Amino acid sequence: MIGHEDPRQTIVELCRRFYAQGWASGTGGGVSIRQGERVFYAPSGVAKELMDPSDIFECRLDGSCVAAPADSSLKLSACAPLFQSVYELRDAGAVIHSHSIHAVMATLICGREFRVSQLEMMKGIRGVGFYDTMIIPVIENTAYEEELVDRLRLAIKAYPSAYAVLVRRHGVYIWGQDWLEAKRHAECYDYLFDAAVRMHNLGMPLVESQGMAAFDAMSKESSASPK
Amino acid sequence: MIGHEDPRQTIVELCRRFYAQGWASGTGGGVSIRQGERVFYAPSGVAKELMDPSDIFECRLDGSCVAAPADSSLKLSACAPLFQSVYELRDAGAVIHSHSIHAVMATLICGREFRVSQLEMMKGIRGVGFYDTMIIPVIENTAYEEELVDRLRLAIKAYPSAYAVLVRRHGVYIWGQDWLEAKRHAECYDYLFDAAVRMHNLGMPLVESQGMAAFDAMSKESSASPK
Amino acid sequence: MIGHEDPRQTIVELCRRFYAQGWASGTGGGVSIRQGERVFYAPSGVAKELMDPSDIFECRLDGSCVAAPADSSLKLSACAPLFQSVYELRDAGAVIHSHSIHAVMATLICGREFRVSQLEMMKGIRGVGFYDTMIIPVIENTAYEEELVDRLRLAIKAYPSAYAVLVRRHGVYIWGQDWLEAKRHAECYDYLFDAAVRMHNLGMPLVESQGMAAFDAMSKESSASPK
Amino acid sequence: MIGHEDPRQTIVELCRRFYAQGWASGTGGGVSIRQGERVFYAPSGVAKELMDPSDIFECRLDGSCVAAPADSSLKLSACAPLFQSVYELRDAGAVIHSHSIHAVMATLICGREFRVSQLEMMKGIRGVGFYDTMIIPVIENTAYEEELVDRLRLAIKAYPSAYAVLVRRHGVYIWGQDWLEAKRHAECYDYLFDAAVRMHNLGMPLVESQGMAAFDAMSKESSASPK
Prior knowledge:
In chain A, about 35% of the residues lie in helices and about 20% in strands. Chain A is of the alpha+beta class. A nine-stranded mixed beta sheet of chain A has the order 4-3-2-1-5-9-8-7-6, with helices on both faces. In chain A, helix 4 links the parallel strand 7 and strand 8. Chain A is globular and about 55 Å long. The interface of A and B includes residues 194, 195, 201 and 202 of A.
C-alpha cells in the first residue's frame, strides 16, 4: 500500500486531496495526526493545498509545541484545541475537520442529531451495521472556533459510539484510530451527508421504519423475479 | 490504445479512476479481472486508490488463491464470492462493484427493476438499442456482503440480457467480456442512473410510452423547421 | 499559448479533457479536426481517453481515408458522416460531439428549439450578444447514428447562425472555425445547458421578456444603491 | 508555503485552477495581480488554462502597458478597466473575475443585494463574523464588458465593506490585498453562493432572523444532550 512514514508529508497530501474535494477551500478545514506522544498540526489561515511538510507544527499531547515551522509568521491552527479534545477523550490517531458543503447542508435538514439507516456506506464506520440507526450529534456553531471546545467535548462524551460531531452551518469533525481510518470515516460520513440531503429532496425518510425482518421477508418473496 | 498486459496494474489504475469518480470512496467498491483460468482480486477494506500491484490476489476460478500479497495482513475482498458468481454464470472477463451515489439514488426511485428507455447512452450496453426498454434487476441489501450471493445469483439468472445487478441502498455490480467492456458498461450505466434521477426530479417518466413510429412521424413533420 | 501543430495530438488531448468533463464517457462523444483538405477522426467505439495519436484516422473531405491506424481492428467513428456534413455545410475547422448530461437534460425541458437569453456566457458564441435570444435546433434521435445525417443537415441549413445542433435524449454536435473556437463554443453551450436546467428547476423563464431598455432603466434607478 | 515570486507564473497557475473549477470556461473569467506600481493582466478571449507566462501583459496603474506579449495578436483583457477600478478604489493586490455558475445562480435568487448570515465560511472574508449579515451588491449586466465600469465603481463605493460585486446573469468580481487573500475570498464567496442556492431550494431563509443570543440560549439548553 502507498503511504508515508512522516506524518508531516501525510498531512500535506491529505490536505491537497481534501481541498480538491471541496472540504478545505478558503483556507478552512484541515487534518491533524498523532504519532505516539506527538501531535502534528497545520498552521492557521493558510491555503491548505499549498503547504509543504516544513509548515507543520509538532506538539505534545498537552498542546505545547516542540517544533514550529521555519516561517515564523505561521501560527498554530485555531482548531488545535478541538483536535486536542478528541485525542484526549478518544483514543484517536488522526482528526479531520471538513467544511464540506454536504456536511453543512446535512445540518440544515436535521435537529440536534443527524440520523440515517440502511445505507451500505454506514458500514464503513467502525461498529456500525446496515440495520443500525447511525447517529451523529449536531452542536450549534459559535462566533470563534476556540469557543466550540466545550460543546464539542460534551457531544463527544454524550455519544461514545460516534466518530464525528457535526457543527451546524459550519462543518464536521471526524476521527479514527489512525489517519487511514479517519480518512475512511470522513469519506463514508461525507457520502452519507450527501445521500441524506438527496433523499430529503426526494421526500424520503432518512430512517427506515421497516426493520430487518420485514425487509428480508419482502425480498425473499420477490427480489429476483422478473416481471 | 493505451492499456496494460498485467491485470494487477490494470486493477490498480481502474481503482484510482473509480475512486476519483466517487465509485470507491471509503474503501468501498472495487474491480476484479479474469485472465484465462486466473482471477485477480483487490484486498478487503483498504483504500482502493492507494493500492499497488503487489497488493492484488491471484486466484483460481474456484476461489482458491494461488498468490497472496507480500503484506500478509491483507485479506481477500469480501466481494470475491460475488465476483466469482458472475464469472461462473456469465462469460465475464471483468466485474466492477461501484458505490456510486447515482446507483444508490436510482435504487430509491424504483421498485424491483430499474427501467429506462430512449436514452442514447443505453446503446453503450451490449445488445441494447435506443427504442428498447433497458431493465436492470434490483435486489435488497443484506447485513453482510457474503449474504448477497444467493440473491445476486438469482437475479443474474433471471435477467440474462442485463450486465448489471443493482443492490438497494448499496450500489451495483457490473460486468463485461473484458475490462474495457466492463468499464464501458459501468460508465454508461452510471450515466443512466444519474439521468434517471434527474428525470424523476423533473417529474418525467423514465420509460417513454411513445413508440418509435410515433416519434419518427413527429420528427419528420417538424424537427428541423425553425419557428 | 500552449497548443499543438499535430491535429492527432490535439484530438487525443481534447478527448482526455472531454472525458474528464463527462462529455465522452462510455466510449461516446468525440472530436474531429480539419486541416486544409484533410480531416482527422477518432476510431469508433473505443475509450476516448485511452487513445494515442497513432489511433487517429486521416481522411479526405469526401470521406475517403488516406491513413488508417496501425491497429487494423480500429474502425472509423460512426460519427464521421455527421462531422463531414458540418465541414461541407459550414466552414468549420473542428467538430465536437458531446454526450454531456447537461445537453441531454436541456433537450428534455424544451421543444424543437432550445432558447435562452441574457446570460453572459452566450457572448462566447460567435455573433451572439447578451440581449439576443440564442436559438439551437433540437432534432429527434434515431436508432443508428448514421440515420441522423439527414436531420442534422436540415437543421444546420435551417439555423445558419447556430454553431450547434442538439439531439434529443442523446447529446449535441458543436463546431467552430478551428479547434479553439469549437472548444470555446462547446464550453459556453454546455454551461448554458446547465444554467437553463437549473433555471427551469427554480421555476424561472429561460427567455427574458424584458428588453434591454427596461433593464437599463431599472438598473440606472437602483443597482448600486445600498439599502 | 508553495508560491511564486513572478506574478505572470501565478496568474497562469491560478487560471488553470479556476478553469478546472468551472470559473473560467469558454475563455471567460480571469485574474489580475498588482505588484507595486505594476499590474499584470491576461490577454482577451483566449483559453485561460492554455496560457503561459509570456502571454501576460504588464501595465501601469493608469492602464498604459509597459510590456506586451511576444505574440502580437494578443489583446489586453476587456476586463482590464474593471480590474483597474478596483485597484484605484480599494487597496487591492489582486482581482479575480469568475463566471462560476454558483455566482450566476445566486444573482437569480436575489434582488439588488445578495445577503447571507450564520455560515462559517463567511469568516473567510476579511472583517466578517458568523453573526453578521454579509452583503454583496448585485449590478445589472451590460451588453459590453467595458460598459460595466460605471456601475461597478458605484457599487464598490457604496459597499465599502464588501470584497466582491456580483453581476446579474454574468458572474462576480472579487478582490483581496494580495493574490492569496483574493483567492481565499473567491473560494469562500463561491461556497456561499452555492450554499445559498441550495438553501433556497430547500425553502430556507438565507438570513437568519434569530440573533446570537437566541441561538446561544437554545444551544446551552440542548445541543449536546442525546435523546
